[in-house]
């Protein structure tokens, strides 16, 4: 006889689906935020420092 | 693996340009991963910025054509743990805080929200949280997650499954403590909420 899904196993599967969905949402919510200007500014300055190391020393 | 490239005087600048574009495109993902590691938006951005600058400084050691997202996540994760040795999060304490907070929700009729999931996630031991986030939200395979966390694939699998169980328990307990409603109903409310949120606008 094939094992029938018990209410318990269905409940567990549902809660795991909910958690999976929620996790992706949490992550995507941050991914979709606009990136603060500071990031690109820092990268630009790091690049400049490399080209002209004297400027910071 | 890449075939050896012939030296070209202009190549480094072009490579830098391509690397830079790819790195900038990964910033949103790095911010998201940092947010789940630190649980704090400001600390997460500091961490993501440090990791971004480390990645930029180490760009010569990156093999173009390999998985740059995994590479940057590895750098970010290393940065997190080396910072943490100096400051930040105490896992055991967080566990207690998360459980207390789950029980102390103001509105007993409020549906279980993504905020509560975030709190429960923050309450997990770090190694479980990072494994679950990488596989469950970051889109990495178990194998890639194992590489990022520098552990065996089997270890990642067991951490992910323990994390899932622990999250379900934490959320259930929080839900029961608030309204005594069946836990599956509380779970379904997360599901319907996230389904609603992900509907096309």
Give the CATH class of the largest domain in chain B: Mainly Alpha
CATH topological fold name of the largest domain in chain B: Arc Repressor Mutant, subunit A
Mean pLDDT of chain B: 79
Rg of chain B is 20 Å
Give the full name of the CATH homologous superfamily of the largest domain in chain B. Answer: Winged helix-like DNA-binding domain superfamily/Winged helix DNA-binding domain
Structural class estimated from helices and strands of chain B: mainly alpha
Beta-strand content bin of chain B: under 5%
How much helicity do the residues of chain A have? Answer: over 70%
Overall, the morphology of chain A is rod-shaped
Named at the architecture level, the CATH assignment of the largest domain in chain B is Orthogonal Bundle
Percent helix among the residues of chain B?
Answer: over 70%
What is the domain total for the residues of chain A? Answer: 1
What is the number of beta strands of chain A? 0
Describe the model:
The complex is a heterodimer of chains A (57) and B (201). Chain A is mostly helical and 57 residues long. Chain A has one domain. Chain B has 201 residues and is an all-alpha fold. Chain B contains 9 helices and no strands. About 11% of the residues of chain B have low confidence. Chains A and B meet through helix 1 and helix 2 of A and helix 1, helix 2, helix 5, helix 6 and helix 8 of B.
Key structural traits:
heterodimer, A: 57 residues, mainly alpha, 2 helices, B: 201 residues, Rna Polymerase Sigma Factor, Chain: A, Arc Repressor Mutant, subunit A, 2 domains, 74% helix, 0% strand
């Amino acid at each position: 006889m094939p094992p029938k899904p018990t209410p318990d196993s269905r409940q567990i599967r549902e809660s795991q689906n909910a958690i999976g969905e929620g996790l992706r949402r949490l992550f995507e919510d941050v991914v979709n935020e606009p990136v603060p200007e500071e990031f690109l500014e820092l990268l630009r300055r790091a690049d400049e420092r490399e080209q002209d190391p004297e400027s910071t020393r | 693996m890449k075939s050896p490239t012939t030296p070209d005087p202009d190549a480094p600048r072009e490579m830098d340009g391509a690397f830079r574009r790819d790195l900038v495109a990964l910033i949103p993902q790095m911010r998201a991963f940092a947010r789940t590691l630190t649980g704090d938006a400001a600390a997460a951005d500091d961490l993501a910025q440090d990791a971004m600058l480390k990645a930029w400084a180490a760009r010569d050691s990156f093999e173009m054509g390999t998985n740059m997202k995994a590479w940057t996540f590895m750098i970010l994760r290393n940065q997190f743990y080396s910072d943490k040795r100096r400051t930040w999060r105490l896992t055991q304490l967080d566990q207690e805080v998360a459980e207390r907070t789950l029980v102390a929700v103001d509105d007993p009729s409020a549906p279980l929200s993504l905020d509560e999931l975030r709190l429960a996630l923050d309450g997990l031991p770090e190694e479980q949280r990072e494994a679950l986030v990488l596989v469950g939200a970051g889109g990495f395979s178990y194998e890639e997650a194992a590489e990022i966390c520098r552990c065996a694939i089997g270890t990642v699998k067991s951490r992910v499954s323990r994390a899932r169980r622990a999250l379900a328990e934490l959320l259930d307990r929080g839900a029961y403590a608030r309204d005594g409603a069946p836990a599956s109903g509380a779970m379904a409310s997360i599901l319907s909420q996230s389904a609603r949120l992900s509907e096309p606008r």
